[in-house]
Amino acid sequence: GLPRLGEKVHPYDKYYSVYNSLTGAVRPVRLKGTEPAFIDYVAVNGASSKGSLQKVIQHTNTLLKVFRTVTDMHFFFVYLSEYSFASCEKPIIGDKFSSRHGQKGVCSQLWPDIDMPFSANTGMRPDLIINPHAFPSRMTIAMLLESMAAKAGSLHGKFINATPFANSVKEEDKDPKEKDKDPKEKDKDPKEEDKDPKEKDEDPKEEDKDPKEEDKDPKEEDKDPKTRSVVDELGPMLASYGFNYHGTEVLYSGLFGTEMQCEIFIGPVYYQRLRHMVSDKFQVRTTGRIDQITRQPIGGRKHGGGIRFGEMERDALLAHGSAYLLHDRLHSCSDYHIADVCSLCGSLLTATVIKSDPQKKAKREMLGLPTVRPQKNFACQACKTSKGMETVAMPYVFRYLAAELAAMNIKLELRLSNKSELPASKE
């Protein structure tokens, strides 16, 4: 049957079954993964003796109606069924968040609401505290504009165009006035041309008005939408409600109740929770599968593998002075291997097992003599003796490296501390 909407399904639980009308076999389908989920969406597409059926189940009430219609129409075959799952998890340390401007970050600490700082103007406590060093590196200036625009818009109850240029709405309001002035100025131009001698007499008067006009120029430039920035438009909107012109506020410590010495930029920003959560990424391994070639633990969370211990982790342990821990991680708990090495020629790949002669063993048993067993079970093929064979512990991947180099006609020679010497020739 079909699963119910809102039903909680655990890993490896059956949430629907497939019935084969020819063989009569029922094949259950189980939930994959490691986390429980809820049935969020069910869609059925099938056929009956009276035609096709396409139903999308969105509520539990419609689920019963679909079942009734299925029985009434003698529904006997399902072409396609779609399901979607939803999971509800609280944010914890390590979960990832991001704004709509790519300013992503990881939750590093969860504080009680009573310990969070509060604003001196509104008494509000922030939901999220961001390190200001995140902005120079990623240069998400639009996030700062969104914060100021959302703060000003929420106070005035208006929609604000957070473009980096001047507000286009205010420009359109001033454009018709400027257009109305243009024809008047054009009409005055011919009159002024006719009054050329008078203008010469008015020159000293105009010179007297120049300093006054110079005082008005910077104010007019500030009002010009072409030279005004978004901050100059949003700042007065914040200041009209008693907030700082640049969006900063004075906060008080939630622990001590004292005023914080620095002003903090605060405002509403749309944030979204990303799919990268600790509950889906944490990885633990004690013992498990190993790779057949290197004999090292496999990787991957799904296969029960381990986390790669790379060069940077190695450098961290060396700098910390814990060399024995490095030996434990990379050798004892990884691919510990015991190999027989010939100390005479330094070869790692020429050791072979010594097989006892069955005829000699049978003769000694017939004569009642004790059977002689070799002192060492391995001998070197190159030196043809077992005198210099030594047992050495090494990572198995080192043996694999020696075999790879031997395939390229490169001999890897080991020099042991207790090296034996070949017997002198009798010549």
TrEMBL record:
Keywords: DNA-directed RNA polymerase, Metal-binding, Nucleotidyltransferase, Nucleus, Transcription, Transferase, Zinc, Zinc-finger
Location relative to the cell: Nucleus
Domain RNA polymerase Rpb2: 305-415
Residues in DNA-directed RNA polymerase subunit 2 hybrid-binding domain copies: 78-302
Family: Belongs to the RNA polymerase beta chain family.
Gene Ontology MF terms: DNA binding; DNA-directed RNA polymerase activity; ribonucleoside binding; zinc ion binding
EC number: 2.7.7.6
Region Disordered, residue ranges: 167-231
GO BP of this protein: DNA-templated transcription
Native source organism of the sequence: Eragrostis curvula
Main location: nucleus
Pfam families: RNA_pol_Rpb2_6, RNA_pol_Rpb2_7
Composition bias, Basic and acidic residues: 169-231
A GO-annotated cellular component: nucleus
PANTHER family, A to Z: DNA-DIRECTED RNA POLYMERASE I SUBUNIT 2 (PTHR20856)
The keyword Ribosomal protein is annotated on this UniProt entry: no
InterPro entries hit by this protein: DNA-dir_RNA_pol_su2 (IPR015712), DNA-dir_RNAP_su2_dom (IPR007120), DNA-dir_RNAP_su2_hyb_sf (IPR037033), RNA_pol_bsu_CS (IPR007121), RNA_pol_Rpb2_7 (IPR007641), RNA_pol_RPB2_OB-fold (IPR014724)
Protein name (record): DNA-directed RNA polymerase
Class of this enzyme: transferase
